[in-house]
Design goal:
This protein is mainly alpha-helical. It has a domain of 203 residues: MetI-like (MetI-like fold), CATH 1.10.3720.10. The chain has 14 helices and no strands. Helix 5 crosses helix 12. The two termini are 14 Å apart.
Length: 315
């Protein structure tokens, strides 16, 4: 098990390293020039070149990549091209908001998905089962941006129940903060619960056909006890892996959701930096999202191995 963890950790490290190269190349291929964008059309060529020199953009791409990579190894994310501030401080000012949004979405999405999947399996072939299957099929096919705009149109514009812009401000009460977070959290929940619900249902249905479940039913045990005490522990492996993958989906969806609702998180910072051609900030934010996604995929893999000893054997 220890060797497997080290092997997966090494693979994850190589993937993060590959992500740094891809992000750097993507930043180099961004259209437009940072200095011209920042100074405007009235800037002289001399002024533009002076700004490029001051930001170190005169060096070759290879030299800048190696300098960025060396800084990352020492925990230095670099400086923003736009204002010269440390990127670590910029991200730190937004990280708490992003973690709050992701945490609330996960706290609602995971229990809801498990409950829907369990209900659909226990009441198999009933109207509850069919409703869950149809609902999850629709949400799987619905992208975040589409549901977000529909939610804004209905709940914010037509019914005027919730604010369309999710910007927590100093001095707000807990209830007011939760109000402004309802729409982005709802968007993430709706678009991320389907896979967990469907996997939970499929795993429980398969387990209910096993002999030990039939034996428990013949003994007269209540259905709820059979599900909680005998079935759920045996389906923990596939469900846990899908739950972790759902968390990874939430992390990816944050970029879109934060942009739509103008939420001051890391996703919004990344999109704003793209508009400003602030390549260093885009690269740093993208690397954090990529590393988080890779780590969660590794965690899902390790959970599957921990629950299934057969996966530990060499192939």
């Amino acid at each position: 098990m220890g060797r497997l963890i080290l092997r997966r950790g090494g693979t994850g490290g190589l993937l993060v390293l590959a992500s740094t190269l891809l992000l750097f190349l993507a930043g180099e291929m961004m259209p437009g020039d940072f200095a011209s964008k920042l100074l405007g059309a009235s800037a002289t060529p001399e002024t533009v070149e002076a700004l490029r020199l001051s930001r170190g953009l005169d060096a070759s791409p290879a030299a800048r990549y190696l300098a960025w990579l060396g800084g990352l190894l020492h925990g230095d994310l670099g400086l923003s091209l736009t204002n010269g501030r440390e990127i670590g401080a910029l991200i730190a000012s937004r990280l708490g908001n992003t973690l709050l949004l992701a945490g609330l979405a996960a706290a609602v999405a995971v229990p809801l998905a498990l409950a829907l999947g369990t209900l659909a399996a226990v009441f198999r072939d009933s109207w509850i089962d069919r409703a869950v299957l149809v609902l999850t099929m629709v949400t799987v096919a619905t992208p975040e941006f589409f549901f977000a705009y529909v939610a804004i149109a209905v709940l914010a514009v037509e019914l005027n129940w919730l604010p369309s812009i999710s910007i927590p401000r100093p001095g707000m009460s807990v209830w007011e903060v939760l109000q402004v977070l309802v729409l982005p959290v709802l968007t993430l929940v709706v678009t991320s619960t389907a896979h967990v619900a469907r996997m939970t249902r499929a795993s429980i249905v398969a387990a209910m056909e096993q002999d030990y479940v039939g034996t428990a039913m013949l003994k007269g045990l209540p259905r709820g006890r059979i599900v909680l005490r005998h079935i759920l522990p045996n389906v923990a492996a596939p469900v846990s892996a899908v739950v972790v993958m759902t968390l990874a989906d939430i992390v990816v969806g944050l970029i879109i959701v934060e942009t739509i609702f103008a939420y001051p998180g890391m996703g919004q910072l990344m999109v704003d930096s793209v508009a400003k051609r602030d390549i260093t900030v885009v690269q740093a934010c993208g690397l954090i999202f990529a590393a988080t996604y890779i780590f969660l995929n590794m965690a899902a893999d390790m959970l599957a191995i921990a629950f299934n000893p057969r996966l530990r054997s060499a192939r």
